Automatic annotation (TrEMBL):
Subcellular location, record wording: Membrane
The keyword Membrane appears for this protein: yes
Transmembrane regions listed in the UniProt entry: 26-48
InterPro entries: PMP3
Protein name: YqaE/Pmp3 family membrane protein
Record's keyword terms, sorted: Membrane, Transmembrane, Transmembrane helix
Species of origin: Aggregatimonas sangjinii
Major localisation: membrane
């Protein structure tokens, strides 16, 4: 995982997921989790972008 990916995971989790996986259910889950609360979105982004 590069430094840029780590920074994007923290600041903009859906963007980091989009760059790794494109448009799909993973991105939708990331957007929903980030909108509900920022921390679950960050955790999801780190788990998905291992």
């Amino acid at each position: 995982m590069s430094l840029v990916t780590i920074i994007l995971n923290i600041l903009l989790p859906p963007l980091a997921v989009f760059l790794k996986h494109g448009v799909g259910t993973t991105l939708l889950i990331s957007i929903v989790l980030t909108l509900l609360a920022w921390l679950p979105g960050v955790i999801h982004a780190f788990l998905v972008n291992k």
